[in-house]
Specification:
By secondary structure, the protein is α+β, with helices and mostly antiparallel strands. It contains three helices and six strands. The chain has a six-stranded antiparallel β-sheet with strand order 1-2-3-4-5-6, with helices on both faces.
């Protein structure tokens, strides 16, 4: 966040500098209000660029075996351009490389989910998936396992038909 702020400030300074050079090239015939407008447009352009490239930059840095399961795009009336071109503000990634399956319960998988947000820290949560029943259980507070490996205190919730996270986990 701090690096993006510094980059935005430098983009404003650079655009003001370009305006200054252009103004000198035309013997100072450009209006005086042009320099702050150029700086503001440069900063706005840099901010918009950072918003739209955040998802690509973040997803490229994911380690091997971590796959994006779902993205959430955002539109806002405060940013009218997002009505035409929404941007990815959040996404969920699943660590399919370390997903674990119990031999006694082959239809159940335990996988780590990572929740990424534009201005929030990354959150990680283990989740148990039952592919046969189409349900999942979040195991944040820990879990009690029976002798056969079944989770005894899971709070199972039905997953909607065609859920991308369940589909990704069950296909691995």
């Amino acid at each position: 966040m701090f690096v993006e702020l510094i980059a935005t400030i430098f983009a404003g300074i650079a655009c003001a500098g370009v305006f200054l050079v252009l103004n000198r090239a035309v013997n100072r015939r450009l209006p005086k209000w042009g320099m702050p407008v150029a700086a503001g447009l440069g900063m706005l352009g840099m901010t918009i660029s950072n918003e739209y490239t955040w998802f690509e930059r973040t997803s490229e840095r994911l380690p091997e075996g971590v796959t994006i399961a779902m993205t959430v795009e955002e539109q806002s009336w405060l940013r009218p351009w997002t009505q035409v071109w929404p941007y990815a503000k959040r996404f969920v990634a699943v660590d399919t490389g370390t997903a674990r399956r119990n031999a006694n319960l082959p239809e159940q998988l335990l996988a780590d989910l990572y929740f990424f947000g534009r201005w929030s820290p990354v959150n990680q949560a283990p989740m148990l998936f039952d592919c046969a029943e189409g349900r999942s259980a979040l195991l944040i507070d820990g879990a009690q396992f029976a002798s056969d490996g079944a989770v005894t205190d899971a709070n199972w919730e039905r997953v909607p038909e065609g859920d991308p996270i369940l589909k990704l986990v069950c296909e691995t």
